[in-house]
Amino acid sequence: MTAKTKPLFLGIDTGGTYTDAVLWSEAGGPNGKVLAKAKALTTRHDLAVGISGAVDAVLQKAGTDPAAIKLVSMSTTLATNALVEGQGGRVALVMIGFSEGDLARDGLKAALGSDPVVFCPGGHDVHGNAAKLDLSGLEAALPELAASVSGFAVCAYFATRNPAHELAARDLIREKTGLPVTASHELSAKLGGPRRALTTLLNARLISMIDRLVAATEGFLAARGIAAPLMVVRGDGALVSAAFARQRPIETILSGPAASLVGARHMTGLDNAVVSDIGGTTSDVAVLDQGRPRLDPEGATVGGFRTMVEAVAMRTFGLGGDSEVALEDGVLSPRILLGPRRLVPLALAGMVHGEAVTSELERQLRAPNPGRMDGRFAVRTGVPERLAAGLTAPEARLYEAIGSVPLALDRLLTSNAQNATLNRLVSRGLVHISGFTPSDAAHVLGKQANWDAATARLGAELFTRKRDGRGQFVAATPEAISERVLLTLTRWSAEYILETAFAEDGLDGAATVAHALVQRAVDAHPGIARLSVALDRPVIGLGASAPLHYAGLAELVGNGCVVPEDTDVANALGAVVGQVRVSAEARVSQPKEGLFRVASGETVRDFVDEAAAIAAAETDVRAIAAGRARDAGTDSAEIEIASEFCVSTVEGQRMFIEALVVAVASGRPRIAV
Q: pTM for the full model?
């Protein structure tokens, strides 16, 4: 059977800088065959433009009929990047049964920032018994909130044991505002209210971003005559339908990295490896054990926030080809600092905007003294105007001054206060900063040539005019500073990979010591105590820039580094070889002797017999898992049920305390016929 008679699968990965596409067939060997691959710049103002650029190029290269594509699967780093960079829509958090002091737990207050929060009396106890609910304060606040936020996050005390109060608040908000609402019980069945609230808040912030991505992809597929189901990779590597992902975008954090792990295993055949995927914004490091990615049982940590999202045990660092390049302050011999913020590389800005960028760089170079804001520009991201709701007066004035053409910061900003205002606009995802990045350094050295090298060189020249603590220039030539930047990126990559290995070995609690030891070992520091460190498995280097940035990695990590042939589209390839996998949980408790309470989905029921309660819980989770599997995109799910009992023994008698019943449904996604 030839590749043409087999169904074709289209994989798409929408990253912070590039959108990748790959056309894959099950024919061509045990691992199938990549028929064509292509890249296009991610266009954040209209994601369909970048998607169409990549997919059209793939279809042209393969010479295939779009109608032959029977499944489209997509991974994305947009949600991950948004959390790392502190971006997302402005949302209102509704806390039911909590006090203001609860905001101080689990990083919730830091995540909330300046977004509004409403506290309401209510909630439940551990057995699902209700306190008195009062939503009058919420109802009074809704008219004003509806005009200033893009969505709502609702979290009630012990909602995982009884979601009734969350459902009441959700229905009220939808009726009065029509805006998207996320309720915490929809995302997690785990206890821990503030962290569940944090997860819900982040989910609400991401809805508009993922909604735009899915809508852009669906619109493009329809325009090309591709009548195939659209799937999205979740953070644990499983596939879910686009409609499923739209409601639960938080589950797509680490989507791109999870897809890359699936792709890495598929391409190399290595069962045990450390996988490091370097993109434009982040580096994502994870471990393959016996052919499967390790999952994080405590929930994914992204951007410094520990969520309740089950995902690959991935450590995400703000280090990539488009990382901000800065100089350490207040020291005689300053180090190069990278990230965590992503900038639009000057080479890219120069390619797109030409004279508007280069003339400003040349003006700054002609100045007798370097300026603090040299080589920096601001430009609107082009998101819909409704996402700019709730700006303060200073933010609105500055936002109005910034347009679709990059504007030099030394012309735009007149005070430090305005710089802080600009940073808030960047955090809201309304404005991009353009400046010198490792991608520019690669262009200066001729190691990258896809954008405008002349603009990158102007940026490097401006950077060399910065001075160290002795008043000396930090580099003699653009080439010298560029070499230093690229060496720093490789060295930091090695440190992050080794730190991940230490954490996986259980040494995360000694992170500060581990970091210092790693730095000393990587530097081959000639001290009295000489250190060396080595991985027990090779590194799989992924990402379009991996061949460049990981060329010197092996000697720093003490093991080999494998960069596969299709490393540049590992995420897109991994997106099409996964499976749908969803789960459902029910909890059985005993509020008083002889009464067994089953909390499953959005229902709470009481039984007088333990066996009957467990049987009902199993029936419920099987039905819920089957329904979620259908919603997630598979018609052939296999369901496995497991139960975990918590009991005690008193005077030789078994005493039931609690039981957790979990159903897991998995299967291949449905394809077009």
A: 0.69
